[in-house]
Specification:
Layout (H helix, E strand, L loop, with lengths): L1 E5 L6 H13 L4 E4 L10 H11 L7 H7 L9 H13 L2 H8 L4 E4 L2 E4 L15 H8 L6 E4 L6 E5 L3 E4 L3 E3 L5 E5 L13 E7 L4 E7 L3 H10 L4 H9 L2
Parallel strand pairs: 1-2, 4-5, 5-9
Antiparallel strand pairs: 1-10, 3-4, 6-7, 6-9, 8-11, 10-11
Bound molecules: zinc ion (ZN).
Length: about 240
Amino acid sequence: MRFAIFGDIHANLHALQAVLADAQEQSCTHHVCMGDIVGYNAYPKECLNIIRDLDCPVVKGNHDELASLEGQIDGLNPLAELSLKWTRAQLSEEDREWLRGLRMQRQVRDFTIVHATLDTPHKWAYVMTQLDAAASFSYQHTNLCFIGHTHSAKAYVRDEGVLSVPLDILPILQKNKYLINVGSVGQSRDGDSRSAYCIFDTDSNEVTLRRIAYDISAAQAAIIEAGLPSKLATRLVTGR
Ligand code: ZN
């Protein structure tokens, strides 16, 4: 089996289409979605429909949760808040109900998926350091766990201690535990403007990071056209 594992799509249709096309070219047999399907970019409904049609395991992201609720939006930066209000207006009650029904974490085959962290999945904390990774590892009962949320592709391994390791092609050894952030499809923040996702090949037992160029200008034009803040368009180029 070859799993295409991707998340933080954030309503970026052009990026999602490019990633799915690459996954197909790479002979992926299964899809796994790490959440944050909506928010920030201009195609929440379209991205939601694509993910629903894939009929794959999905976990809930913080933007999915906020978009699915009504009332006050707390704890988000102003850009995220503006886009969330706009996103809510694009979705039907049925879409919101589907988002509300997503689980916080799941086990897929023999690996775990969660949007933020395993130690406090509902608090939407960020795994940014080895210490953050160590906290999540203490709740990880599978060899391998995939996360998202920071929009920054990264891998941690727990052997005797917890180390940050390069992710390009990572062999998964049974004796260790691995916490892998698959990066973001629709709004990269690790300085590389291309989409990121991972392929987990269960035959070779390797995780590979893929970086995929997509039509950023088209995604930017759609953001402006929708009346969303222009900063959401400009940041796509810098990958910050
Ligand atoms: Zn996100």
